[in-house]
Design goal:
- 39% of the residues lie in helices and 19% in strands.
- It starts with a strand and ends with a helix.
- It is of the alpha/beta class.
- 27% of the residues are buried.
- It has a single domain, classed as HUPs (Rossmann fold, 3-Layer(aba) Sandwich).
- The chain has 7 helices and 6 strands; from the N terminus they run E-H-E-H-E-H-H-E-H-E-H-E-H.
- The protein has helices at residues 8-14, 33-43, 56-62, 72-80, 98-104, 119-131, 150-158, and strands spanning 3-5, 21-26, 48-54, 87-91, 108-112, 136-140.
């Protein structure tokens, strides 16, 4: 059931009734082992995995104008091709905002463990609990077998870091 959806309504329409699903989001620029670590973990939590690919415009708003490296449609196609992913959509808003979460009603959501105790995350958790009291929130430690991030890969390509 590989699919890149164009709207939240389309996602709801293709999700089988009664199937649980996990929602994760991210840039997924220059796909690497850290991304696979997240997606494979998230796929084991529920029956299906829905991935929100953050749009080019959204990413440029919080990173910088040189990111993302790979355009959103290509990133969505790459993530959709992974065996552990069932549904992908491109999001212009935070996939954790009220309208998105209440429209999708995920069974589980996964966040990076490094932000667990931040004030922003504490607020987000209280909001999720208010909007969707039955949704489970999971925290996954970053992949640590070796240091890997998209920024590190970009820096290595540019010759900035080794």
């Amino acid at each position: 059931m590989k699919h890149i959806c164009k709207s939240l309504a389309e996602i709801r329409s293709i999700l089988p009734s009664g199937k649980s699903f996990t929602l994760v989001s991210g840039c997924f620029d220059l796909l690497h082992v850290g991304h696979l670590h997240l997606l494979e973990y998230a796929s084991r939590l529920e029956s299906m995995l829905v991935v929100a690919i953050l749009s080019d415009r959204y990413i440029q708003g919080y990173k910088n104008s040189s990111r993302p490296i790979i355009p959103e449609k290509q990133r969505a196609m790459l993530v959709t091709s992974l065996r552990c992913v069932d549904v992908v959509y491109i999001s212009d808003v935070s996939p954790n905002d009220e309208s998105t979460l209440t429209a999708l009603r995920p069974t589980s959501i996964v966040f990076d463990d490094s932000i667990r105790n931040s004030e922003k995350m504490k607020l987000r958790l209280s909001q999720i609990q208010k909007w969707l009291p039955c949704t489970k929130v999971h925290f996954l430690p970053r992949y640590m077998d070796e240091s890997v991030s998209t920024t590190q890969i970009i820096d290595r390509i540019r010759g900035i870091a080794k």
